[in-house]
Amino acid sequence: MSEYSRDDRLNSQNDQNVKYEAPKKPKKKRKLFKKIFVLLIIAVILFIGFMIFKLFSLSNDINQPLDREYSEYRDNKVSYLKGEPFSVAIFGVDSDSERGLSGGERSDAIMLLSINPKEKKTMLVSIPRDTRTEIVGYDTFEKINHAYAYGGPEMAVNTVENFMGAPVDHYVAMNMDSVKHLIDSVGGVKVKSNGTFTVKGIDFVEGETYKMDGDTALKFIRSRYEEGSGGDNGRQERQQLVLESLATKMLSPKGLLHINSVFDTLGDNVKTDLSSREISLMALRYYGAKKNVERVQLEGEDAVLNDGLWYFIPYDESINEISNAYRQNLGLE
Fold first, then answer.
1. Any transmembrane segments, and where (predicted)?
2. Which residue among 111, 184, 323, 324 is buried most deeply as judged by most CB within 10 Å?
3. CATH number of the structural domain spanning residue 194
């Protein structure tokens, strides 16, 4: 006979069937979590709303359209909604806020960006400001940076397109002094020096990375006569390095914390034909392309011509090679 009675077995089975529930979290903690979550959502919505408001306000301040629907080097207008490749000419103008950016000032720096989101590739081409070429609409052969002085963004874009034999879909013109303020507004930039030289008491060593404020960065990108600076070619590369670092910083989470001061700086110092809608779509569709940047420079030689002026004469082979690569990144080859 079993040592356990029927009642004992039933009691044992009932003990095994007992369900133990985990202690419930206090209601106060759950309510606190919900409040924090709701506040976080509200903060995000307000931040996005603030950025949209600032973007549209900024667009009204800086927008200066070109007199065309799209480049004559294209068959159709670029669709940013579809994420099609596009190009932008960047003109660093030796102006100030009083003189403005509509014309009458030479472009101290000229760079071309071709951005391909599908290939996740950006091509950055520097054109020396002393490059001798035809000034479209002025019927002369002069330094390419004179185009902006003669006809503002319109003539500058047309001249660059003619020189490259490729479309320039948009432009951004910025006075060079504002670069200093932009860099300061995001808390400085980190740049690796491409040469060993000293400019206005500041020493740079090739291969060393420096945290630069706006004033230091401006001296860095404007240097070309100092021993070891690499002349115009070295300066062009420095312009590319600083621009790339600044763009990366502005698009970083830390950069977004300074978005208000960035917008304020841009409003007084930038002109572009890009609309607020196009800028918004670019930010959404083209972010990945910034991680793969190919920097390119034209090859050529310096010469003093009959007019007594100093020019950069680019090699035809270099122009053709870069133009083909530029067009290919735009999906036109």
1. 36-56
2. 111
3. 3.40.630.190
Any domain includes 31: no
- Tell which residue, 49, 41, 42, has the closest CA to residue 259: 49
Q: Which domain holds residue 195?
A: 64-329
**Residue 239: both structure tokens together:** 């312009």
DSSP codes, 3-42: SS-HHHHHHHHHHHTPPPPPPPPPHHHHHHHHHHHHHHHH
In a domain, 182, yes or no: yes
Kindly report, residue by residue over 121-180, the tens digit of the pLDDT.
Answer: 999 999 999 999 999 999 999 999 999 999 999 999 999 999 999 999 999 998 888 888
* CB 61, CB 267: distance < 8 Å: yes
For residue 23, is it within any domain? Answer: no
Report whether 94 contacts 106 (CB < 8 A).
Answer: yes
**The model's pTM:** 0.77
How many C-beta atoms surround the C-beta of residue 276 within 10 A?
17
Look at the chain and report how many structural domains it folds into. 1
